[in-house]
Design a protein that fits this description.
The chain is α+β, with helices and mostly antiparallel strands. The protein is built from seven helices and 18 strands.
Length: about 375
């Protein structure tokens, strides 16, 4: 077909990615705005993968409950995080097993969970404790009368939940946990004033695409580019994620890595870690910023931005010095790409083999999870 001709739409079931990046084509424009693709991704990927729902300090108190929503606006899955008297953390379906009412509506101290509709009561591990009015029911109660359990995992200061996990949480985080074990996870403190939500008119996958390559940094982020050694920039591929290593110029803040660490001989000023499909952990000498990406629609995304500080004296310096400016620059680019993807003439392109391996890995995972589901 001539370059000006539009291509027929591709279905999610037909999406494949050539494993060799040197020969691979980028995804069709339908990925970035077609409602059919968005619905398929919601059910086959987002409902089966791990997402941040809370900070660990929000559920630190024994005998407490925290209602949360898994991917509000898309999955809208009601969840309650509980910590029982023994200190064990649970992720439970916040849906009564009698008539489906939401059980927990307020955060705070709780010894049990009691549905306000008909009084059915549950222990903090989800097992049913009492069911008024069911005294004559046969074969009751059964295990099915307890609250459903969701996949649960914690990493650093974050709590992750999966509705129907396709992969184990350990498989997702283990490679990063080993690599980043030196980081002072235990001393991080939330900076509420620097934490905020952004809502952008773009598909969530475009935001992830942009995050997963440093190719655009010299063109888009002039300030950040000055802090980095472009020739030493590295991208690595844990199976369900991507790790980008930012080596900084002399004089810029860098991690004091322990002897024996694989990066000990490099001046690493940032680790940018992405966990499939939509969590970004940005580690700097001053602390951690987290981008929790929440798809809202085919061309609408919320990014929950958390700032957790370990060393306040280094704030505003180095590769993590002006994150709001970098975020605004990234969003401008993502807006432009979203506009381009709406064009009927948009067609798949090619990957830059050296610079876009992280993006290629993301698209490979998307295609694999769509097919596996």
């Amino acid at each position: 077909a001539p370059p000006s001709a539009s291509l027929p739409p591709m279905r999610p079931d037909d999406f494949r990615v050539e494993p060799d990046i040197r020969a691979a084509a980028t995804p069709p424009r339908e990925l970035y705005g077609d409602p059919v693709w968005f619905d398929a991704i919601c059910e086959r990927i987002l409902a089966r993968t791990w997402h941040v729902v809370a900070r660990l300090d929000e559920v630190a108190q024994p005998e407490s409950a925290l209602p949360v929503t898994l991917l509000p606006g898309v999955l809208d899955e009601p969840v309650v995080l509980t910590r029982d008297g023994a200190g064990s953390l649970h992720a439970l379906a916040n849906v009564c097993t009698h008539r489906g009412n939401v059980v927990a509506t307020e955060a705070g101290r709780a010894r049990t969970l009691r549905c306000g509709y008909h009084g059915r009561t549950f222990r903090l591990d989800g097992t049913m404790l009492a069911a008024p009015g069911f005294e004559g029911a046969t074969s009751f109660p059964s295990a099915a009368d307890g609250l459903g359990r969701l996949g649960l995992g914690t990493f650093g200061p974050l709590v992750f939940v999966a509705a129907r996990p396709a992969t184990s949480f350990d498989a997702l985080v283990r490679p990063l946990a080993e690599r980043l074990a030196f980081f002072p996870w235990d001393v991080l403190r939330l900076d509420a004033g620097a934490s905020r939500d952004y809502e952008i008119d773009a598909n969530w996958a475009l935001y992830v695409d942009n995050y997963l390559e440093g190719f655009h940094v010299p063109f888009v982020h002039g300030g950040l580019a000055k802090t980095l050694d472009e020739n030493a920039y590295a991208t690595e591929f844990p199976d369900e994620g991507v790790l980008q290593v930012g080596v900084v110029a002399p004089g810029e803040p860098a991690f004091a890595l322990p002897a024996g660490h694989r990066d000990h001989d490099r001046r690493v000023g940032a680790y940018w870690a992405w966990l499939f499909p939509a969590t970004m952990l940005n580690l700097y000498p001053w602390g951690l910023s987290v981008n929790v990406v929440q798809p809202l629609g085919p061309s609408r995304t919320r990014v929950r931005y958390l700032t957790l500080v370990a060393d306040a004296s280094l704030r505003g310096k180095g590769a993590g010095g002006d994150l709001h400016r970098v975020e605004m620059e990234d969003q401008d680019v993502v807006f432009g790409v979203q506009r381009g993807m709406r064009s009927r003439l948009a067609r798949p392109g090619r990957y830059a083999p050296r610079h876009e391996r992280g993006v290629h890995h993301f698209h490979t995972l998307l295609a694999r999870h769509l097919a596996d589901a």
